[in-house]
Model the fold of this input.
Amino acid sequence: MAIPDEATNGKAFSPDMKIGLFIPCYIDMIYPEVGIATLELLERFGLNVGYPLNQTCCGQPMSNSGDEANAAATERLFVENFRGYDCIVGPAGSCVKQVRCHFDTLPQTDDVRHVRQRTYELVEFLHDVLKVDSFPWAEFPHSVAIHNSCSSIRGLAIAKPSEIMGASFDKTEALLSKVKRLVLVPVDRPDDCFGFGGTFCVTDEAVSARMGLDKVHDHLRHGAEYVVSPDMSCLMHQQGVARRAGLDLKYIHVAQVLNAGPF
Amino acid sequence: MSRAKEVDPAAEAALFILQDQVHEPMHDRFLWATMMRRDEEAAAMPEWEELREIASKIKEHTLTHLDHYLEEFEANATKRGAHVHWALDAAEHNNIVYSLLHDRGVKELIKSKSMLQEECAMTPFLEKRGIRVVESDLGERIQQLDGQPPSHIVFPAIHKTRQDVAQLFARTIGTDPGNDDPHFLTEAMRNNARPRFLAAGAGMTGGNFAIAETGTFMVCTNEGNADIGASVPPLHIASIGIEKLIPRVEDMGVFLRLLARSAEGAPLTQYSSHFTGPRKGGELHIVLVDNGRSRRLGMPDFWHSLKCIRCGACMNTCPVYRRSGGLAYGATYSGPIGVILDPTFDEFKYSELPFHSTLCGSCSDVCPVKIDVSDQILKWRRVMAKKGYLPLAKRLSFAVAGHVFGHPAEYHAMENVAGPAIDYAPHFLLYDRTWNPWGRDRELPQLAKETFRQWYLENRSEHANVQH
Ligand code: SF4
Done:
């Protein structure tokens, strides 16, 4: 089958705009393939993507623990690295939420405000900004359970939280449903947190592991082969739980599916 | 820091989970099912989100004019023949109640569920002074017989199985330990408690809402037990927190539609009783209690917690609470609402509570009065960090992580040196290799052979010298 190598959509976006690629620290070191998939995917749409080499982290590990003092230097550096870009895109909901919602202890200069407003999580960038309507190169003949992270759902409105009433939507699902031969499977508790929570997973080990294990069983019960998420940090936790329990589930980032690899 | 941290929810939750394969899964499943019913009930009302907004606004308005509404309530309740007392703190509350009972020679008291009376530690106070206190709510009575505080503000004994209750009743009221049929157990308790209800010299209740316009207060129960306490003995004392005020009778239409749906996924509690003045021949005393509430009202980050109507929905939806059991919080209030209320009573004692959360945000989305529960949890973490109450392990690793992440050269040196990177890199994710709980229930993630940055430098060489 001929797979086109160019996007057929998303062209409305000006090629002059500079897109800053934000690769969070744990993706850089543990899941570089997610960074590669994200970059290649954005390049398929003809975007001008740059990767500031001085980037480190968004400050979330410190900030989430209430440690503003230690978070501040990291947050300042983030703004410094990305202030020159029109849009900043990162394949990590919780890190993007950190930038958008929690860079509030820094003095709110024009640069800080710009960076906060223009930092997007990958799924929302594809769905809301590029308005992508097809991924002709992507094919994934597997059953997939979606895991949207809590930060993506409740912080970035990637999907409707189950507690809030109203019309339901799920941007990750909307994108994945455009991938050929991919079968989405429902789960019992789609947006029940499964216990990563940054430092929580270490300081609250027993609860965190139990939440993770419950989730793994939910996915297995519904016949999922893959769990696909816009947030690798949740998957890192869940993958660890599944592996230790000897359970057979594969965890990949939504960028890898949409870009057709690398896996 | 010499004072030991008395409350360690992570350790207590671990005990709850690891005790057996029964309690935690049952607890989680029951509360999850309650949430599912709540979602269905809420979804059946197209105006649900609007109601939440209105409820939140009414509470905000009332709290910002609290002095006015309290005085209006006092005037109207007094006009109807109730006696209104003001208690600055728990001690004053308990003393007022005790002298009312003592003056009338009351030796036996029945009470319905009241979190405020728990907060004031009223029962032990009265019992020390020779007054026998009997809980009339089944769940509360179970907890009382077991010498435990309630583990949930709506379902006080929800962490117990039927078998636990059968054993407890066998020990305390002499039932057959092998019979754990819920109807049998309920009936046994009814037969045991009835005579006490009838003999009691006074009944106490709490109050879910106090209506300024009429001096009425409302008590919502499913067992009708508050009504027995209010209508059998000659003396009725109600303890009501000053934040329970609402302006008008018609506001009840908003709150009653939200309360039971949020709490238990039912359209209404079985009994929604209004009390306006004493019944004929009886006495009604209302104790309005501050106990830290006016101080909370002055806390810009935390005063919204006073909007709480104690529905417990944030507990039912909380993935951490469902796995921990309420007793793990070691405080009057547990779950998300407990995490943001308890530290207002003692910041140091409860300094670990804000960390017993994944900050998933579900509590804020479920709350019928739109309290920003999750954001307040994060803000409490900031308070604890500023006061130096962070656990030592966290403080050290964040200082290291904060330094490394703030200095790109060191960060990249760390990731470029293959050997030490293995030692250092997971450090900021996993904090301490000697004390490494990650490894117990999870496999460690493997570091990639090549970082994304290295790949980028090799594969996008045209950019490589931009900021190298
Ligand atoms: S904080 Fe909100 S959800 Fe939680 S008990 Fe109070 S009113 Fe209910």
About this structure: Residues 5-129 of chain A form a domain with the Rossmann fold fold (CATH 3.40.50). Chain A has two domains: 5-129, 133-259. Residues B 262, 308-314, 337, 366-369, 371, 373 surround iron/sulfur cluster (CB under 6 Å). Chain A touches chain B through 79 residues (CB under 8 Å).
